[in-house]
């Protein structure tokens, strides 16, 4: 599933996301490559060139990056039928599945983040993601492929003429919400290595039997979804290849949710100015970025509720699922006003850890997120927006100084931590 950082590098006067990414400077030109072949999003590598042209060495590194992106996607994407994660998801409760080294390494990182965030980051919510309509089954526009008894995407009569001519999402049935929430104990997944091969065992208890509307019983087992960490892991791998090849300037961006920035050779301090995407673009906040950060030689990650969501009964239901309630964040019935964190960004972690962390912060909510950041990440920079539905106000919380975070959009208060 995609989550969008919406980071727009705005140094100088050039739009760097436009191929071929040329930008004038005193000591070379910024050029680069782009591809839409991986993770259903754009992969962008921009780098410094002396004469504005790529070299054979540049092209070779780009091929290495694409090869590694393909390996990661084929390993952990639930869309790839023979990926390690897809095979784990098809396995019965108690079954052990052989997985590849990439899936093993990524699942180990996911385990670490699950423990560190006390379950706020949890990749075992795959069935809940599907229940709310954010899995790969729903990437089409004509309804879900392979319909399931619990589907919340329904065909209905939109204009009262007696014909079902449109689709809409409705709230799920409680029996499915409860059953799928109870299948999300990621701590019970066993990972082990034996004789140079890697394995994952689905918990014996990770199954539920639910009767559909006709009384027919269906068995469901735990499903993993690594969308909250997989692209970050891919960014880390791309950065490893880029730095190993000796590049010091430029950036790599995957889907605008995760990116690593090296240095900007056109600026004296060699830092990039990066726009933070506005999660509530409207007449009230008409600018595309709610603020700007200045960063160099660092990885950036963000999560938000504004890229993927459904409006159900007048309320926003986004793709980030709270594993403790089974509901999308900020959409629990008791939170009638939709208060909560609506976008969060962290700087200085690995991209994989950053992706998992921002997802967890969104789940935690304001008070727990601030406590977590103070206790677990006191040296890292962060910024998030909290929406208070009671008085319809927005507040930016951050520990960044005014020279690192500036240009906050008018109408948003700022709390320095």
Note down, in words, how this protein is organized.
The chain starts with 7 loop residues before the first strand and ends with a strand. A 9-stranded mixed beta sheet has the order 2-3-11-12-15-18-19-20-22. A 4-stranded antiparallel beta sheet has the order 1-13-14-21, with no helix packed on it. The protein has a 3-stranded antiparallel beta sheet with strand order 4-8-7. Helix 1 packs antiparallel against helix 6 and helix 6 packs antiparallel against helix 7 (351-364). A hairpin with a 2-residue loop joins strand 2 and strand 3 (41-49). It is an alpha+beta fold and 417 residues long. The protein contains 8 helices and 22 strands.
Chain-wise SSE layout:
Elements: E1 8-9, E2 29-38, E3 41-49, H1 56-76, H2 84-90, E4 96-99, H3 101-116, H4 126-131, E5 153-156, E6 166-169, H5 174-181, E7 190-194, E8 197-201, E9 207-211, E10 217-221, H6 230-244, E11 250-254, E12 258-261, E13 272-277, E14 289-295, E15 298-304, E16 309-312, E17 315-318, E18 340-347, H7 351-364, H8 366-376, E19 381-388, E20 393-398, E21 405-406, E22 413-416
Helix pairs in contact: 1-6, 6-7, 7-8
Q: Mind telling me the C-alpha Rg?
A: 22 Å
Helix run count: 8
Structural class: alpha+beta
Number of strands: 22
- What is the makeup of the main sheet? 9 strands, mixed
Question: Termini distance?
Answer: 31 Å
What series of H and E elements makes up the topology? EEEHHEHHEEHEEEEHEEEEEEEEHHEEEE
Instruction: Name the shape in a single word.
Output: globular
| Major β-sheet strand ordering | 2-3-11-12-15-18-19-20-22
In terms of DSSP E residues, the strand content is 25-35%
Poorly predicted regions: 1-25
Mean pLDDT: 91
The residue fraction in helices comes out at 10-25%
């Amino acid at each position: 599933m995609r989550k969008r950082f919406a980071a727009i590098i705005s140094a100088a006067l050039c739009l760097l996301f436009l191929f071929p990414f040329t930008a004038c400077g005193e000591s070379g030109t910024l050029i680069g490559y782009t591809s839409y072949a991986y993770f259903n999003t754009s992969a962008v590598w921009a780098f410094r060139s002396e004469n504005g042209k790529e070299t054979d060495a540049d092209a070779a590194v780009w091929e290495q990056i694409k090869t590694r992106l393909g390996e990661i996607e084929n390993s952990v994407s639930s869309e790839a039928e023979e990926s390690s994660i897809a095979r784990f998801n098809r396995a019965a409760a108690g079954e052990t599945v052989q997985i590849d080294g990439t899936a093993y390494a990524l699942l180990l990182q996911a385990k670490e983040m699950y423990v560190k965030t006390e379950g706020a980051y949890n990749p075992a919510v795959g069935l809940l993601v599907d229940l709310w309509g954010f899995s790969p089954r729903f990437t089409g526009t004509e309804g879900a492929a392979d319909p399931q008894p619990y589907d919340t995407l329904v065909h209905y009569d939109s204009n009262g003429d007696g014909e079902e001519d449109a689709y809409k999402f409705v709230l799920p049935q409680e029996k499915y919400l409860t059953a799928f929430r109870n299948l999300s104990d990621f701590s019970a997944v066993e990972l082990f290595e034996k004789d140079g091969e890697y394995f994952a065992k689905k918990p014996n208890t990770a199954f539920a039997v639910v009767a559909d509307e006709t009384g027919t019983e269906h068995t469901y087992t735990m499903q993993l979804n690594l969308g909250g960490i997989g692209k970050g892991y891919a960014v880390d791998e791309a950065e490893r290849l880029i730095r190993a090849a000796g590049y010091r300037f430029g950036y790599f961006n995957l889907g605008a949710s995760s990116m690593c920035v090296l240095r900007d050779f056109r600026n004296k301090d060699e830092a990039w100015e990066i726009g933070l995407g506005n999660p509530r673009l409207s007449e009230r906040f008409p600018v595309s970025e709610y603020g700007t950060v200045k960063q160099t030689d660092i990885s950036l990650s963000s999560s938000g509720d504004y890229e993927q969501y459904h409006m159900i009964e007048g309320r926003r239901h986004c793709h980030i699922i709270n594993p403790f309630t089974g509901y999308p964040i900020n959409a629990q019935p008791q939170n009638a006003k939709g208060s909560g964190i609506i976008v969060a960004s962290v700087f200085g972690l690995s991209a994989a850890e950053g992706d998992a962390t921002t997802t967890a912060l969104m789940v935690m909510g304001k008070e727990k997120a601030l406590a977590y950041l103070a206790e677990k990440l006191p040296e890292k920079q962060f910024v998030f927006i909290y929406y208070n539905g009671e008085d319809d106000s927005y507040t930016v919380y951050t520990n960044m100084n005014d020279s690192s975070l500036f240009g906050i959009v008018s109408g948003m208060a700022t709390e320095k931590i």
